[in-house]
Amino acid sequence: MNRLKKLRYVGVVAGLLAGATIAAMSGMVPALGASPAKPAISEEANAAVGQLGKTLLAKQFSFQARTLRVYADANGKFLHIGHTLKVLVRRPDRLRVDVDGDDGATQLYYDGTTAVVYGLEKKAYVSMPVPNTIEKMLSEAARRMGVEFPLADFLSDAPGKALLSGVTASEAAHDVTIDGVPCRHLLFAQPPGVEVELWLEKTEQSLPRRLVVTYRSVPGQPNFVAEFSDWNVAVAPTDADFTFKPPEGAKQVELTAASAPTPAKAKGTKQ
After folding, report:
1. In this predicted model, which residue has the larger pLDDT, 266 or 255?
2. Lowest-pLDDT range, 39-43, 198-202, 223-227, 260-264?
3. What's the pLDDT tens digit per position in 158-183?
4. pTM for the whole thing?
5. How is the chain split into domains, by residue range?
6. Has residue 118 got a pLDDT over 70?
């Protein structure tokens, strides 16, 4: 949770790799008080996130998420955009993401050596060689394309550690029930100015059900919202699920500085 992400993206990959990740948080300090000299992670929050981290280290799993993020238009005004994501993971080096959003449908294929992002409406795709782990692949995609995958911390090599990176304080709010499942409502602070709310199932797996990130230090205090569903840690994907086969009529677009998305820097953010 240690980077402020870009708030606007354009180009063929915008529908998939745009948005904020958990690592993109700014401060819950107004809600939790002044930051302590040392991290003050509550025992309940630490245990719940630790268990979630163990669950997400499963060899393979899948889930769905509905997200609502903010981006800046040409005039700098914040607007909301929604996406539905279907995510399929096989550690350490396979990932497939299907996205349908307000800005179109996009697919990401990662087969261990190559990452391909395909825009269904434009029938265009970009392809590039990448490292041999999901975390390194996403980092390379961010560096080369100028964008980042929402919820990337959940797919890192050490999810529990990534989710608590930069956090200086936490507390548990009241428990709630989401879709019939009891959940812990946890609050996290990560200076400067990120407020994070995370709802985890009160089960042995401690799977996430909801995430809200609010950027208190950014003018307008934009946020990112994700609702999770359909978690499956018994899924059995094959290599074919992660292999991109260009549909008839699809054209490859060269990944150049001109074709990579250019983010707009929000005033007051660090990048």
Report:
1. 255
2. 260-264
3. 999 999 999 999 999 989 999 999 99
4. 0.81
5. 14-243
6. yes
CB distance 72 to 78 below 8 Å: yes
| Mean pLDDT of the 33-46 span | 66
DSSP code at position 145 = H
Closest CA to 31 of 240, 179, 213: 213
Q: What distance in Å separates the CA atoms of residue 262 and residue 241, rounded to the nearest whole number?
A: 30
Superfamily of domain 14-243: Lipoprotein localisation LolA/LolB/LppX (2.50.20.10)
Asked if residues 200 and 177 have their Cβ atoms less than 8 Å apart, the reply is no
